[in-house]
Amino acid sequence: MARITAGVGCSHVPAIGVAMDTGITDQPYWQPVFKGFEKSREWIKEKNPDVIFLVYNDHCTVFDASCIPTFALGCAAEFAPADEGWGPRPVPVVKNHQKMASHIAQSLILDEFDITIMNEMEVDHGLTVPLSVMYGDKTPEDEWPALVIPLCVNVVQYPAPTGNRCYNLGKAIRRAVESFDEDLNVVIFGTGGMSHQLQYKRAGLINQEWDTAFLDRLTSDPVGLSQMPHVEYLREAGSEGVEMVMWHVMRGALDDDVTEVHRHYHVPASNTAVGHIILENKAS
Ligand code: DHB
Ligand code: FE
């Protein structure tokens, strides 16, 4: 049986990818951002997941206003890094566990979560930056150490799914994973955030107090946290802070009672508060 053993929450700031790709991570601005991922890199090496189920959002790279799936599951054999305007990031192509992805698609839809099936898809910084910070520098000639099943969530075009829907989807993903008949260690990522606003009068908004409370409650009060209405994300964490709903998918897929094994928070990276947490199921 496949098992979800741990969850990773992680921001996806594009400039973090640029800092890695251009070799400037030891500059004073970036050094504290990357310092907080040193333990994470050791942890993931040790944990050595076979598969990462990676919940992320696309930023009008693959999807635009012509097609807005709320939840899109990557079922293709592989996913190339997308060109977001400066050429594709020089990182490996993401390889899927296609059989497991197909099984999850079937299980979710029969479990009444009607996801969109993507048999062709590129992936933007929303997916590649969390892999880079967790696994360190990789060139296009390398391979990511784990297979990756991407789940793309719409948080760009109103209406995004509710935190409650995301949390319950996490539970359905867990059922799907546990009904897959192969002995696999699966780690689930919830990505995006933390507080940030990229546009109009409140551009540059960061709310450290709110971010800290979110990280605290993710461990201690996940159900209560999942009930937070969209308007609170917008008001307290900025217009792009609503990316945080994706973390509920990760949390819903874990046990109620988890151990927080690592946390990192740093302001700023670009316009964003960088937040990162690692949660383990106690039995794992
Ligand atoms: C920034 C943050 C994001 O989440 C994003 O998708 C793009 C840019 C930023 O801080 O610059
Ligand atoms: Fe984003």
Automatic annotation (TrEMBL):
InterPro entries: Xdiol_dOase_suB. The keyword Oxidoreductase applies. It comes from the Bacteria. GO terms for molecular function: ferrous iron binding; oxidoreductase activity, acting on single donors with incorporation of molecular oxygen, incorporation of two atoms of oxygen. Keywords: Dioxygenase, Oxidoreductase. Pfam families: LigB. Residues 9-274 form the Extradiol ring-cleavage dioxygenase class III enzyme subunit B domain. NCBIfam families: PRK13364.1, PRK13365.1, PRK13366.1. This is Protocatechuate 4,5-dioxygenase beta subunit. It comes from Shimia aestuarii.
